Amino acid sequence: xDPYMSLTIHYIDEDFAMQSRCLQTSFFLQDHTGESIAQGxxxxxxxxxxxxxxxxxxxxxxxxxxxxxASLNNWTRLQCFGHRLHLAIENAMRDPRIDRAVGLCKxxxxxxxxxxxxxxxxxxxxxxxxxxxxxxxxxxxxxxxSRQAMIARxxxxxxxxxxxxxxxxxxxxxxxxxxxxxxxxAINKSLSPLLEFTDALSSEKYVSVSFVKPVLHLFRSxxxxxxxxxTDLTCTIKTKILSYLDEKYNNPLTQELLDMASALDPRxxxxxxxxxxxxPIHARLTSEMARTAPAAMAEMGPTSDPHGKTxxxxxxxxxxxxLGSFSKTAEGAAxxxxxxxxxxxxxxxxxxxxxxxxxxxxxxxxxxxxxxxEHQRLFPRLSKLAKKYLxxxxxxxxxxxxxxxxxxxxxxxxSSLKPENVDRLVFLSKNL
Length: 432
Fold this sequence. Notes:
With 432 residues, the chain is mainly alpha-helical. Helix content is 59%, strand content 6%.
């Protein structure tokens, strides 16, 4: 799939359900330069009649060509959280002690992978020592989680591994020393808590962007917090990872985007916005609410009330009309044709925002889209902004999954597929 480029779009529909659609897979004859990618993205957007000014953000990895393409198109970009975390961990792993211990793990796993006899002996040792009968795992260089999984499995099966290798004089040098074991335990203790966050933020079926700031806060205050009873290597790994993430997420535009997403999530609101940024975020919310006000009120309809009830929701049973009902109908028609004055509109926006911020926070395990579905009539302007910002994916995993789908479509036996057929097959595979 190297000659191809895919564009995946995320949006929240009218029923506040997260949608992820692979729009198009384009064939590139030329190199993947920043200029060609920028032009290709614009062409895909135009082919689907998507207005670029409605594009909120593009989530990308750290590739220089993709970063340049977003810059050339003047698109706001968000770096993939998973890719950032991977680079932070790779930066923290630059230590001679870690290189030796991890290198030993790789050789050890390889010695068992290519020897059926050692595999059999390992199974027998596991049964004798009453250990789980698990096979050893190998590392994938582009997946930091696979390194942690390899180390965790070696530590789990350390006694069985030592028993098998101690009987082979040619392989005794692969038995980890106590120094290597200490290093592996330090790596495992530092990295194992981070796995769940990467998996949770890689989904495309629920809101993830608003969780970036809470996760970073959790890293600082708990997961990557240095404790006095930890080894020097564990403290060093944690400090390096946290310093790298803080540096990369210190960009003002990125901070503003993440603050807006968190503020519009009823689980967090302004809880994770720094005190210095509360006033600017409050002002931006007010400004964007004013811009979306006409569309929001038009969707609400003239007969709606703050409690979400409309004339259509009224019982269908017929009853005799009174003079008061005629007067009420006339007042409603007049209100429908009368627009709020600028001062009234400003007061309504301020009241809606204050009411939202002062309401109780949603439980962190609840779905914010369900909450907005129930409260969109109470907060019509803010609900429009929620649709705008909460659809942003925190990672580029959805796009990576499209590449995997493309790899399953364009195989060695189907290498003559025309680009337009590849586009159709990938589109149907991801959207049906």
